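hey m, so remember when u said the tokens were messed up on ur end? i reran from scratch. heres the input so u can diff it against urs
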Amino acid sequence: MFKSNVALGCALGILVMLPVSADETKVNLAADNGLWEVTTHPQTTGQMPISDEQLQKLTPEQRARVEAAMKAAMGAANREHVMHECMTPEKRQQGFDLGNEGPNCKTTVVRNTSSELEVRRECSADSDVRTTTEHIRANGRHHVSGTVDAMMSRGEKQMTMHMAIEGKWLGADCGAVKDAQVVK
């Protein structure tokens, strides 16, 4: 199910943790290691891709709770999010695995240069389809910007998300931030 933290999960991975194929694990984006502040501006539209069959199996009370939770998640998904992330050489060498790629997914690295990174992912199983395109540009070693465009569908229900991303380098020392933390 699409949760309100999807925007945060995307932001966490955008700077240099995007999925790429096993033969291309090194990130070439010229951005310094250290503490980064990543701000996302998501815009989510459409319906939650939950089948009518799934909803019909719920009691009226359960369905009301699920629908209220979905409405709240959509509202939260459309708010600006700010994170601090500690980027290390080890993270860059691990490649871009977000841990959400399954056997029914195909990832294509479109560009992986010092100034631009573009990755497309397509996943499908039965009536579920998910596509994501992440496009990041390094505007110098201390600033990145980009977009994430995602679409999820199940049958007739479809939801899309467009997210603008800005990342700025705060310094070489990550301080107390070991991985990533939500600021706002």
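this time it looks ok to me. The radius of gyration is 17 Å. if urs says something different then somethings off w ur setup not the seq
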